[in-house]
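=== Structure Prediction Worksheet ===
Name of assembly: unnamed complex
Input type: mixed (protein and possibly other molecules)
Chain count: two
Listed entries:
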Amino acid sequence: MLKMAVMIKQVPDSQDITIDPVTKTLNRSQARNVVNPPDLNALEAALLLKDKHGGEITVITMGPPMADVALLECMGRGADKGILVTDRFFAGADTWPTSFTLASTADYLGGFDIIFCGEETTDSSTGHVGPGIAEFLGYQQATYANKVEYEEPYFIVERDIEGATETLKIGKPAVVTITLNANVTRRPTLKKKIEAYKKGVTLVTNKELNLDPNCIGLKGSPTIVKDMKTVADPVKTPVKPSIEELDKVVSVLVEKGVVK
Amino acid sequence: MPDYDAIVVGAGNAGSAAAITMASKGLNVLLVDRADPPGAKNLSGGVLWGNDLSQILPKWQSEAPLERFIDNKKIGFLTEKSSITIDFKTKYFDENKVGHTVLRAKFDPWMAKKAKEAGALVIPGITVDSLAIKDRTVIGVQESGDTITANMVLLAEGVNPRLSIEAGLRKPLQDRELSVGVKEIIKLSPQKIEDRFNLSEGSGMASEYILGNLGELNIGAFFYTNKDSISLGIVSPMEELRKNGVTHTYDLIEMFKEHPSIAPLIEGGTVAEYGAHLIPEGGIESVPQLYGNGYMILGDAAGFAFSNGLVLQGMNYAILSGIMAGETAVRAKSMNDYSAKSLSEYEKKLNNTYVLKDLKTFKDIRKVTGNPKMYTVYPQLLEGILLETLWERGQPKKKVRDILSEAAGKMNMSKVKTLTDFYNIYRRM
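=== Predicted Assembly ===
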């Protein structure tokens, strides 16, 4: 029986985001929150393994209390447990303390055979966190995977390496990040969602993890956003060619044999 | 034993009102909605008259995400170059603050949250597949092959009631029972809104127009102020759009926005959202059998919306029908009887409220609102009278009587038909 985790993030729906021209920050206030799309592919990869080999899936997210609905959504699709890592000390984290905190959570939960992540988030697109978790935990890792199979005691991972597929055989425990649209995600069902909402999620705070305050949240984040520039839309000048110019274009096209 | 006392399908105003009514009386309630957050896909013109809401949520005026309270209501005609409106601004509205503009994408999730606080289990993001029926009794809902059972299913599934129709609980909808609303939300700063519409902080304006500038097309329009945006749109009977198959609704809304008296009001604003929705306007004739063994039909799904040419309301009808259905369910539970006979209490209750009374009183209103002259001749006639009386052009003045008979002659109006029209308005509106 496989012990699996899926790391997810609640992100603002990218369709609804604008950039504030004054503060140059992302304006997310109007945006609906959704599960980061490739994270749903990561969940599906875990569900496919569970369908075949059995096992237990724990979905983990770090975020504010309202992020519980993202976990419940995943449980509605078939995950068994939801863990919400939430504490004001974790707030403002960049990818380093995020990876560190999530890795520590996995450790606190007794470790996993395999941890799935989405390839990257739609709201920051770093792709750091999956590999970061693997490094902090000392797990094997495979990134940008389209497919994961299990042949005890190995995972067979197909990686998308742009134009080719690389197949890896990696041992347990492992972190695998899954590409967007790697698989067809299943929909949540009413019955599973009812079970999820009745069960609820489990909170993990820094009381449980007991991490050094200098290594978490904003304090533990080495990244500083210095500036952000918005680029104005290019000015489009409509072209109004004369008949002579059009004739010239046509004659060139005829000459080249494009039109007859 | 069934999983729930009641399953409510749809977290709109009707569904949430019913869920709150039942859950606060200790019933075990499941409220399911297709959107996440629940109710976020709902859309309406925008003014909520909240008298009934006080019954179940006494603090709604301070807690709900409301936009502006209406203290100024306008109704009128637009012709190609003119706007003729009655502008009603009153301290009565001001003192009571029951009419509010709302944005349903914010308001409905709030109401669903209140249902959750009352004890209902609220599940968002799920579209129910079908009703579960056994021995001519609705026993629950089906989704992804699972059956979730309940003593009662409250169908608050909205204007396009797929579950009720597929289960044969009501007939498929006909064109004549529906209107199409098309709406835009235009962002504008609160300061600009208050300056342009002569409003104070928090107060708002709601207006409804008959569009007399679109030929024979029977089109109404609305224009409401929100906190930092304008809701505007057009409403057209489905039959009209079919008849005039060449005119697109998005062209109609553009024509409304470009009207000389509307364009300056939205100048400098940016379109933030747009949407379209069906409106049940079939009146009492399209209200289905409202209850049966194990089920009740609520809100838009039951055709509970009201339009008489002066007002277009639905949210208050939805809320009150939700409360009545909820109370009926509480009574049914206390008697442990969920038969059609027990649930017939729902219709009895509605018969004593404005929900069914209004629909009965105005059963022939289409004879007025469907009269093409309301959209062609009469706006022009009014404009003609006003031009003759209020526009000084260095011509000898005429009596209203003469202006009228001249204009009527020009427009080929028969005196008898005109008198019949006015009699219809007098009798039915």
